[in-house]
Design goal:
OB fold (Dihydrolipoamide Acetyltransferase, E2P), 8-stranded mixed beta sheet, 36% helix, alpha+beta, 2 domains, BirA Bifunctional Protein, domain 2
Length: 496
C-alpha cells in the first residue's frame, strides 16, 4: 500500500512539474498569462444557451475554466465553466491560427481562458461557440480532482471550498441561494420601514444570549474584550435613541461545540420594532418566511430531507406549558413548587442540575419531549421567567414571559420577546444572572451598566427577534449540515 502511495505521489509531482514547465515556456515566449490584467466578457454560458434563438451567429466573448478538452488533429473541443454554468467551444486550427492552436493543445484542465467566437449549434444539437480567438488568462499549476469521481471527501470539501465550488455545481447553487435569501430578507424588511445598522463585534460585556464568549486582548487600549454573542443590547440602545425599526445581519461568536447545526461563528439577523410586542413579531416572522421562500424557491412549500413543510398555511401557536402537557403528559399548571418539579423530572428520567429552578426544569421537559415534534412551522410561546432575563413578564402570570421560539423541522429557527423595558426589573434579572454565574452557569449574563443607563432614559414598548440565517439556509437548500451553507466553516488545523 505504501508503495502504491509513493508511486501516486511521484506521478503527481511529475504532472505538477510539467505544468510549471509549460508556464516557463509561455513566459520565455513572451506569452505570460499572468501579465494579462483584464478580459472583456460579454456573456455568460447560460445567457448564450437561454437566448440562442436571438444570439445564433452573433460574436460573443466568454471566459471560464477548462473542464474538458478533446484534441482531434486540426480541430478540438473544450468545455469551459463560468459562474452560470458551462458551454462547449469548437476550436479549429484554421479559425484561430496555427501558432494559437499549437498553444491551445498544450492547455491543461483547470486553465482559465477567454473565448471569442460565433454562437452556433453542432450536428448533435449542442449549443456551442466557434472560437475565432482563444486567450489564456491564468495557468492552473495544481490539478483538479478527477472529473467522474469529483471532490467527495467532506473534510477536504470544507477546507478547500474553492475546489468544491469548481467541481460540484450543486454547491455553487447552494451559495447563490444563500445570497438570494439574505437579499430577500433585506428587501422584505426595507419595505416594512426597517433601517439596517451595524453594531460592535468587540465588546466589553457580551450579553443578550445564553452563551460563553470568545475573549481577546486589545493591545492599543491594554484591555480585554469579548466577541459579541448577540446583537441585542446595542440594537435596543438604538430603539432608546429613537430609531424605531432597526435590524442587523452580522456574525456572532459563541464558544461552544461543533455539530450539524452549530458553528462557533454564525450569521444572526436581529430586528427591533418600537410600539409592538411578541404577537407583532409572530406576524412579521410568518410573513417574512413566506416571502423569502416564494422569492428564492418560487413556492411556499419546502422539502427538507424528504419532509414537506408548508409555509403557506397559518403557523401553529402553542404555549410551552401546553406543549409539555400534549407531548410529555405533564400539566405544569399542577406543578407548584421546585420540589414537585424535581420529583416529576426524576419520574420521567429528565436530567437536571442542582441550580435549576422550576422554570428551568419545564424547559428541559420541552427540549426532551416536544422539540422534535415541531416539524411544521410552530410558535412555542410563553417561556418561564428563569430562562428569559431580557423579556417582559406576562401581566396575568409573572412566572412566565412574553416570549416565543419559532420551530421548523424540530429546530429552533428564531427567538423573540416583548422586550423588557422596566429598568428596575431588568437590574433584578441581571442580578439573578450574576448569581447563576457564581453557581457555575458560564452562559449567564452580567450587568451591562451602559445598557441600564439607556433603559433608564426610557425605551418604548418593543418587540424583538433573532433569526439564525444559517439554519434558514439549510432548510431552503435541503442541506444536511450547517457547514454545507458556510463557505468557510471553522475547522481544526491540520497537523503540519
Amino acid at each position: 500500500m505504501a508503495e502504491v502511495k509513493n508511486v501516486q505521489e511521484q506521478d503527481l509531482n511529475q504532472l505538477l512539474k510539467v505544468r510549471r514547465e509549460k508556464l516557463a515556456e509561455l513566459q520565455a515566449a513572451g506569452k505570460d498569462p499572468f501579465q494579462i490584467t483584464k478580459y472583456d466578457v460579454t456573456n455568460h454560458s447560460a445567457d448564450v444557451k437561454d437566448q440562442f434563438e436571438t444570439m445564433e451567429g452573433q460574436t460573443v466573448r466568454v471566459a471560464g475554466r477548462i473542464m474538458q478538452k478533446r484534441v482531434m488533429g486540426k480541430a478540438s473541443f473544450c468545455n469551459i465553466q463560468d459562474l452560470k454554468g458551462n458551454i462547449q467551444s469548437y476550436v479549429a486550427r484554421d479559425s484561430i491560427g496555427e501558432e494559437s492552436y499549437k498553444d491551445f493543445k498544450k492547455y491543461d484542465i483547470g486553465d482559465i481562458i477567454g473565448i471569442e467566437g460565433e454562437v452556433f449549434k453542432t450536428k448533435t444539437g449542442e449549443i456551442s461557440i466557434h472560437a475565432g480567438k482563444v486567450t489564456l488568462l491564468s495557468k492552473s499549476l495544481q490539478i483538479l480532482p478527477e472529473k467522474y469521481h469529483g471532490l467527495t471527501n467532506t473534510d477536504l470539501r470544507y477546507r478547500q471550498r474553492y475546489t468544491d465550488l469548481i467541481m460540484n455545481p450543486e454547491v455553487k447553487d447552494t451559495f447563490i441561494k444563500r445570497s438570494q435569501i439574505i437579499r430577500a430578507i433585506r428587501n422584505f424588511l426595507d419595505a416594512q420601514g426597517f433601517m439596517e445598522v451595524e453594531t460592535p463585534m468587540l465588546v466589553a460585556n457580551a450579553g443578550g444570549a445564553a452563551a460563553r464568549p470568545f475573549e481577546t486582548h486589545f493591545n492599543a487600549l491594554d484591555e480585554d474584550f469579548k466577541l459579541r454573542i448577540s446583537l441585542e443590547l446595542y440594537l435596543k440602545r438604538l430603539i432608546v435613541g429613537g430609531l424605531e425599526r432597526v435590524y442587523e445581519i452580522g456574525r456572532v461568536f459563541r464558544n461552544e461545540g461543533l455539530d450539524t447545526r452549530h458553528n462557533p461563528e454564525f450569521t444572526l439577523m436581529e430586528l427591533y420594532q418600537a410600539y409592538t410586542d411578541y404577537h407583532g413579531m409572530m406576524d412579521l416572522t410568518e410573513n417574512m418566511y413566506r416571502y423569502v421562500a416564494q422569492e428564492v424557491l418560487g413556492t411556499t412549500k419546502i422539502v427538507y430531507n424528504g419532509i414537506e413543510m408548508d409555509l403557506g398555511k397559518p403557523f401553529e401557536r402553542i404555549t410551552m406549558v401546553d406543549a409539555v402537557k400534549k407531548y410529555a403528559g405533564v400539566d405544569w399548571n399542577e406543578i407548584h413548587t421546585l420540589e414537585e418539579a424535581r420529583a416529576i423530572a426524576k419520574e420521567k428520567h429528565v436530567e437536571f442540575e442542582e441550580r435549576h429552578k422550576k422554570g428551568d426544569i419545564l424547559n428541559l421537559f420541552f427540549e426532551e419531549f416536544c422539540e422534535h415534534h415541531m416539524v411544521q412551522p410552530t410558535f412555542v410561546m410563553d417561556h418561564p421567567i428563569e430562562i428569559s432575563p431580557l423579556t417582559k413578564k406576562k401581566p396575568e402570570n409573572p412566572e412566565y414571559v412574553e416570549r416565543f421560539e419559532f420551530f421548523m423541522n424540530g429546530w429552533e429557527m428564531a427567538n423573540a420577546y416583548s422586550e423588557l423595558n422596566d429598568p428596575i426589573d431588568q437590574r433584578e434579572r441581571f442580578k439573578d444572572q450574576e448569581e447563576q454565574l457564581a453557581q457555575g452557569n458560564d452562559e449567564a449574563n452580567t450587568t451591562d451598566e451602559d445598557f441600564m443607563n439607556a433603559l433608564e432614559l426610557g425605551m418604548p414598548p418593543t418587540g424583538g427577534i433573532g433569526y439564525g440565517i444559517d439554519r434558514l439556509c439549510m432548510l431552503l437548500t435541503d442541506s444536511a449540515a450547517i457547514r454545507d451553507v458556510l463557505l468557510f466553516p471553522t475547522m481544526k488545523t491540520l497537523d503540519k
